[in-house]
Design brief:
Number of strands: 0
Radius of gyration: 19 Å
Strand content: under 5%
Order of helices and strands: HHHHH
Number of helices: 5
Shape: elongated
Helix content: over 70%
Structural class: mainly alpha
């Protein structure tokens, strides 16, 4: 079950395992990191650049650089992992039947894995045609 504590000391006492404590800490850290990554993304794409100038050529030129690919991949990876862990908390709380919970998690984790693989492949293997 999900840890309901707000402080690390209380969470350590409430955690059933070190893995559960790790995920509790991960949710806090990844949430803060995601906020700054997304604010930076919005700053670079909505404030520094006129929104009317963002088109395929702008995105292609930006994503032809490895730094921006890694930046966007980090947003993708952290967002999916953070969301998947939050969904795990919800499923543990709301799906009471253990067999149904297991198969629901299998389907959800499979879908999240597919989205991560598809997003990563399209981000790193797409030829944007910028020379």
């Amino acid at each position: 079950m999900a840890i309901r504590s707000r402080r690390f000391e209380e969470a350590r006492l409430e955690a059933g395992s070190n893995l559960e404590l790790f995920w509790w800490v991960f949710m806090r850290v990844s949430g803060v990191v995601l906020v700054f990554l997304l604010l930076g993304h919005m700053w670079m794409n909505a404030i520094l650049i006129d929104l009317n100038k963002i088109d395929y050529d702008y995105v292609a030129k930006r994503l032809s650089q490895t730094t921006w690919k890694l930046y966007d991949w980090l947003i993708l990876a952290l967002g999916l992992l953070h969301g998947a862990n939050g969904l795990r908390y919800v499923l543990d709380d709301w799906v009471q039947n253990p067999a149904r919970r297991f198969w629901t998690k299998v389907v959800v984790y499979g879908l999240i894995g597919f989205l991560f693989a598809y997003g990563s492949l399209s981000l790193f293997n797409h030829d944007f045609g910028v020379k």
